Amino acid sequence: MEHDPELDKVFESVADYFGLLAEPARLKILHCLCDGERSVADVVSQSGLSQTNTSRHLNMLYRAGIVGRRKDGSMVFYRLIDPNFPSICRTVCIQIASGSALNLPSKPSKASLKKVGRALEIASE
Predict the structure, then answer these.
(1) Average pLDDT for 32-36
(2) How far apart are CA 116 and CA 89, in angstroms?
(3) How far is CA 67 from each of CA 59, 74, 123, rounded to the nearest angstrom?
(4) Which letter does DSSP use for residue 61 in this model?
(5) Cβ partners under 8 Å of residue 61, min gap 6
């Protein structure tokens, strides 16, 4: 097989995308946005993250095109705009729940995976 520089670019983009999803704080934030638009304050409250940390991660996700934002006065609202996120996350959760994923150091409970799965189903509707 011949080396393909275009394929290298695709793999780099895929790695960048998965890199964004490789941070638990960003996954918490995205989970909060699965069922609709939320203010930054709501995301902070639901995720348990600090205001500063939440804002930093939301800005990264915004610049990457995974979330959209709008301002209403002094309030900033975010929403999930990447249509691929719910299905990718649901696929990974199913793999982990079924036990067919890699041996992970700490596996979440099946109940918590089901909760994430339900939220992702709502987001993909």
Answers:
(1) 88
(2) 9
(3) 9, 19, 13
(4) H
(5) 20, 26, 29, 30, 67, 78
DSSP string covering 72-124, please? ETTEEEEEE--TTHHHHHHHHHHHHHHT-S---SSPPPHHHHHHHHHHHHHHH
**Is the pTM higher than 0.85?**
no
- Which residue type occupies 110? K
CA distance 92 to 113: 10
**68 by DSSP, 3-state: which?**
strand
Contacts with 10 (C-beta within 8 Å, 6 or more apart), sequence order:
none
The one-letter code for the residue type at 52 is: T
Which amino acid, residue 3?
A: H
